[in-house]
Amino acid sequence: MASTSSTGNVDHSFRVQEDVPVIQRLSANAELFLVNVLCFGPFAALSIIGLIERKELTVFDDRRALLTLGIEIVCGSIALLLLRARGWKLSDLGFRITLPQTLAGMLLLFGSNFIVASIVELVRAATGVDASAVTSSEAHVTWPVLIVLTLINPLYDEILSVAYNVEAASKAHGAAFAITLSATVRFICHLEQGPISAVTILPFGLIFAFVYWRWRVVWPLVVAHAVMDFVGLVPR
Q: What is the extent of the structural domain holding 208?
């Protein structure tokens, strides 16, 4: 029942609130949580299951690749529709394709791989443990699946786990939280790779998130990720 003011006018505040779509009523933090659960919850669950099973060998084949693509297409489409309804645009996420950014992506590829390889060697020298030997991985992906995966997966990961998380989280919680959140989401989705993920995936996540935060462009990240996916999964 609507309340009335002292002058006798009807207070329409409740009516206005009811007319606003539920999506528009979400807080910024609720939106951030919902997008991450939607886009990366399934991958986190699969990753945790793989970690619990403690497989010494992980195999990435067409079946796993198609499952990944299916989740990304469905969840990514829903997330983008949700974000569009909330007023987000691709330009808000630093999405622009240019030649200089493509070249920057190659520099990021070599630079980040050099840093991560150095971290792996430092950890090996300091602990005497070869993290990569605990869990090994093999790829058995056919060319058509690899091409589609290389086109979609880097866009999905870098736009949603990096660009969106950094933009959305930094506004309310600052750069440090946003960069950490982005890297942590990426890390959790690769737990099944074993200890090596802590010294490779986590640093990659921190580097990529920092690069996005510093320059606010996502295409170099997509390029670097796409090349790493292609090289790592190419049929041999």
A: 21-233
